[in-house]
Amino acid sequence: MRLLANENFPLDAVIVLREAGHDVAWIREDSRGVSDDAVLRRAQEENRIAITFDKDFGELAFRSKLPSQCGVILFRITPKSSQYIAQAAVEALASRDNWAGHFSVVEDNRIRMTSLTQE
Q: Is residue 43 left, alpha or beta, with left meaning phi > 0 and alpha meaning psi from -120 to 50?
């Protein structure tokens, strides 16, 4: 899966996702400090799904009318450690294959998904 990890996503989780075979670009590596809008534009340009802990991405995702091959996954899990976040991210991503075209919220015990094309 092609992912774009926001700056707030921990390095341990980025590494584990890469080791699990995901193509993960990380904002902190090459675009530190860019706006949330710029992150979503990049996700769109590179056909990636943005992963973040930033709640502002919900409104931005709907407003920016992301194409169907993009999406946003907001992690709202208890951040016990970066290793816990890494494991939770790998498990959540492996649990579905329909992340594109959705704004998704991953919580400790459930995943909520809303289509980005809903009116």
A: alpha
The helix (run of H) or strand (run of E) holding residue 91 is helix 82-94
pTM recorded for the entire structure: 0.92
Q: What is the pLDDT along the chain (119 residues), one digit of tens a residue?
A: 999 999 999 999 999 999 999 999 999 999 999 999 999 999 999 999 999 999 988 888 888 777 777 899 999 998 788 889 999 999 999 999 999 999 999 999 999 999 987 54
Q: Which two tokens stand for residue 64?
A: 């920016």
Phi and psi at 28, nearest 5°, equal: -65, -25
CA 35 to chain centre: 15
